[in-house]
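[Meeting: bench + compute handoff]

Bench side (C.D.) handed over the final construct sequence. Compute side (W.E.) agreed to return the predicted structure before the next meeting so the bench team could plan truncations. Sequence as handed over:
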Amino acid sequence: MDSCYQDFRSQPEIDAQYDTSLSVPHEAAELQRYVDRAAQARASLRCHLDVPYGPSAAETLDIFPADEPGAPVFVFIHGGYWRSSSSKDFSGVALGLQPLGITTVVIDYALCPAVTLDEITRQARAALAWVVRHIGEYGGDAARVAVGGHSAGAHLAAMCLLSHAGGIAAGAPAPLAAGLLVSGLYELEPLRRSYLQPVLRLDDGIVARNSPASAEVPRCTTPLWITWGGDETAEFARQSAAFHAAWQAAGNPSRLSALPGTHHFSAIHGFEEPGSELCQWLADRLGPGSHRAISGDRS
């Protein structure tokens, strides 16, 4: 396999940028922290687990409703390089959002190599469409839905944003309230030349159809914050900048900034704390019904 890509001369150089086990000490402990916080969320928060949004066994989602009806909604898509993890590992993102009056939905999806990345993208889009249609049955406000994710989940959220914006252009649904993308992958070609390729099985068509940074971006009013850990490798910063540029080139609002002092796994810890920049940015864009947890917050 030809491993050269842009300025990379070999596969090991690409792997050094994208293999988080090489750049983050104690990766197993970081993943276990997700699991522990997820268990805490399911034990302490009201939740509806394994709600089906599609026909296959993998197409389920977990809903953590806000206390008040008519709540804004955040749809979170987990990472794992499209080949590992599940919604149950990331229930912890609801810990910081539920106290702010935000309903959190964590979606699950099938994994490579059992399915292709085309199918995973289809499932993520189907999950978001289900939320828009049905979240009112769980006390959520379908007119105030934000979508986001981490790592591979940020990629899938970007694909959802593109399709939703395209639907608006065709006269379909209302704009999403916001997008919050953390440590995402928006150009897939380097991954095709990495250690991940035997599992992901990317080809020319899959890369072209699923690279948000090079996609045609419809005009859309949805504001994005595209962020990553300040201690991550240069490729995560470059990937983030590439999608930011594509979104802005269409005339769409986008913020690009890193989260200082965080690495690939700790970049999403803020979702567990109501006062964090991640939670407060979402609450600001989702509008009334948020900010109740912290006295003196902007309303």
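W.E. noted at the follow-up: The radius of gyration is 18 Å. C.D. will use this when planning the next construct.
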